[in-house]
Design a protein that fits this description.
Elements: E1 5-7, H1 8-15, H2 19-27, E2 34-36, E3 39-43, H3 44-51, H4 69-74
Antiparallel strand pairs: 1-3, 2-3
Length: 85
């Protein structure tokens, strides 16, 4: 009989993603978990189920979209140290 439950680290290794990505998947309820005391465990069947489906990336929203170069320049304060005496 094989392993029934993965730790979050083992699930991340099996999926080829970071531990933080596994935490995000759990938080979005895209990956079901079992809790045993304080431990969070992922059933091996759940990892297999997750790998059988496509998971489109979420489009960038205003809150997490990278700034444009112009926006960064606008917020930059330029000082001329040669004028300071």
């Amino acid at each position: 009989m094989g392993k029934l439950l993965y730790s979050k680290k083992e699930a991340a290794d099996a999926l080829g993603v970071s531990l933080r990505s596994v935490d995000n998947l759990i938080g979005r309820k895209e990956l079901a978990v079992r809790r045993v005391g304080r431990r969070v465990l992922i059933p091996t069947k759940e990892v297999a189920r997750f790998t059988r489906h496509d998971h489109p990336t979420r489009p960038a929203t205003k809150g997490n979209a990278p700034e444009s170069v112009d926006e960064r320049k606008r917020d930059t304060v330029v000082t001329d140290s040669s004028r300071e005496g």
